[in-house]
Amino acid sequence: MLNPNTSDKEVKKFIRLEGSETRLEEVARPEVAKNRQMYFGEAIEVGFTIALPLVAGALFGLWLDKKWATQPTFTLIGLFAGIVIAFGNLFVIVSKFSRKS
Asked: What was the pLDDT predicted at 20?
């Protein structure tokens, strides 16, 4: 039987005997797969943290520009505000992540 302390050589032998195509880390070391999922989730969080304020700021600026016929003033202001908010959020996430490590 496999456990978290099983060596890589024993795991490869087990996989060969069982004929399984399962990845090595997920068979013998489920904590590796769990860490991978955690980091994947954090990468998605960072992506949304940057993308959403940029898109929201630009769209809100476009809406204001159409409403008051001031193109491209509010679009640029909204985009700049989105950049500031995105980097502020990114700073919070990176500081949270560095405290975990």
From this structure: 52
Return the closest-CA partner of residue 65 out of 56, 54, 55, 76.
76
Percent of the chain at pLDDT exceeding 90: 50
- pLDDT tens digits for 39-71? 888 889 999 999 999 999 999 999 999 999 999
Q: How far apart are CA 59 and CA 14, in angstroms?
A: 55
pLDDT above 90 (res 76): yes
Cα–Cα distance, 65 to 51 (Å, whole number): 21
Separation CA 83–CA 94 (nearest Å): 16
Tokens coding 100: 């975990």
Q: Where are the domains of the chain?
A: 8-100
For 38, the token pair is 């955690």
CA atoms within 13 A on the CB side of 33: 10
